[in-house]
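Weekly puzzle thread! Below is a chain. First person to post its structure in C-alpha cell form gets bragging rights.
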Amino acid sequence: MLKTGDQAPSFSSQNQKGDTLSLADFSGKTLVLYFYPKDDTPGCTIEANDFTALAEDFAAANTVVLGVSKDDCASHQAFIDKFGLTVDLLADTSGELCEAYGVWQLKEKNGVSKMGIVRSTFIIDGEGKLVSVEYGVNPEGHAQAVLDKVK
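Winning reply:
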C-alpha cells in the first residue's frame, strides 16, 4: 500500500472522451485521484456529485480532480451525462492503475469475499509526491474533507 511521502505511481489512461491523460500532464498542479467501485451506484454517485459541486473551489486551489474505476469510457460518459458531472473519469479497464495504487483488494460483503476497488483517494502535489493517502473512505462529505486538505 502507498503512503504519504511516496512518489505517486505514473499512469496513462483514457478519460470518458477517449483522451489519454497522464500523471505528467498535471505537473505544477495538485491532483486529486479518487478511486471508486462502479459508475452510477449510490455511494459513487454521491461522491461524483460532491466533487462536481466543489469543482470551482478545487480549480481556485489549482487542483484537478480525476475519478477512476474499471468502467469503460462509454459507461463513464453515460454517468457524466446522467448527473451533469464535471470531473473527468479515467477508464482503468485493465486494472493496471488500480493495482499500482493498491486499491484492488479482497472485499467482503454479505459473507462473500471477492476482489474489488476499495474506495480510496490520493492527493498528489505538483511534483508527483503523495501528500495524502486514504484507503476505505466514506463517500458522505468526503469531497469537502479533501478540499479542506488541499487548501
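Puzzle host: Confirmed. Bonus trivia for everyone else. Residues 31 and 64 are 5 Å apart (CA to CA).
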